[in-house]
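Reproducibility note. Readers wishing to regenerate the assembly model reported in the main text can use the exact inputs given here. Chain order matters: entities are listed in the order in which they were concatenated for prediction.
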Amino acid sequence: MTPAQNTAGPGREVLNSDDIDRALRRIAHEILEANKGPEHLVLLGIPTRGAHLARRLADALERVEGTEVPVGSLDVTMYRDDLRSQPTRAVEPTVVPPGGVDDKVVVLVDDVLYSGRTVRAALDALSDLGRPRAVRLAVLVDRGHRELPVRADYVGKNLPTSTAERVMVRLAEHDGEGTEGVRIAGPAEVAP
Amino acid sequence: MKHLLSIADLTREEIVSILDTAVSMHEVQDRDVKKLPTLRGRTIINFFFEDSTRTRASFEIAGKWMSADTINLTGKGTSISKGESLRDTVLTIDAMGVDMMIVRHPASGAPAQIADWVDCSIVNAGDGTHEHPSQALLDAYTLRRALGDLDGRHVAIVGDLTHSRVLRSNLLSLRALGAAVTLVAPPTLMPAGVASWAGVDGFETSYDLDEVLPRVDAVMMLRVQRERMSGGYFPTAREYAVTYGLTPRRLALLPDHAVITHPGPMNRGLEISAEAADAARSLVLDQVSAGVAVRMSILYHLLAGEGSTQ
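Running the prediction on these inputs yields the following structure tokens for the assembly.
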């Protein structure tokens, strides 16, 4: 049941679709173990791909425990510290599950952890929405090179990279069937 | 995007981007903490040379909710009343290092003229009978929420079109979004040469409101601007109400799904009856609530991105 190596796109594949599924399943178990069950959990994905991963993680949690875990998305664009150095970014929706985040254990979900600045922005955004009991961080890929004191609680894959390389996450929901996977490319291989 | 002077300066993509971002901004309105840090350290001057309630208040709220420092100035109580020229006044304000001036002025083209003089961003908050772009964007936002995609929809714009700056901005934005537009007004209040406006086509004009109403998805009622009227544009207010007002009888001519908007302030009993203004299909208060979200989105697009730093 191993899908053919996905050769679409530049660089080399480090996770295929099955690897991503396995990583999310493992993270689901780790979250349940650390939290001693699904109580008080809320998953918030950081758009765009983090939001898709959060939904997949919620499905994985439901398959293990049989209970539905509230899932939403948290857009951090308005809280970024690099807005003025880039063209205007599109803003994605923030969807807070009906129960809110007060006194919940919020698991932030993102695709790649790099500088840590997105997570910093997410923590600020979250504090404007309420006061969670605890905030955890789950990422599919940790590629290192942190610029802030941020650490992930749950990691799909630790991927040593150089800053010149690019890590590309493609998910079927967002990028289309057949493209899914995580690839790493050197500066010369990245299409302009 | 540095200034917002006219809808004509915006591409369809830019309009859609502003409207889409406004959806996210609208969500902030329901929060306990209505504050985003996005424009921290930016200074915005609301410079209003003409009366306004909702535009000025919503621009001020929008700026404050995005953490900008907002200051209100009016024509009265500034050095304008001591005889200082408009140019000197705005250059003085600009020299203080502000990032944006939001300008309402009775003279058409004043904001564009000011944009030539100063370095900061200029937003046209209504200039004479020319344009009122933020109003058109919030109207489009409100209609999109009620009707979905506006492509192929039919909107009637009814009322005092000659004196309306909302008309020109709305015509441009609705056409850019693909909606069909019919302008309805008495012959005296239909702008001269409206059919030959540069750059816009695909709209029709009519003097017969009863004929137009059954085939619209939305009807936009515009205020009769008595303060701008010097001549006799119609015999009596009562005659206007009977021939061009949205009366209870005309309300019944609308298709079931059709909605009503009015940019406010309303002359109840003149262009719009109380029954129409308070009907379930009236979006008047939705427009006001959308006003803050859309203006937050405008500030974000003008001040947050690359190249917005002086």
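We highlight two features of this model. The CA atoms of residues 33 and 130 of chain A lie 25 Å apart. The radius of gyration of chain A is 16 Å.
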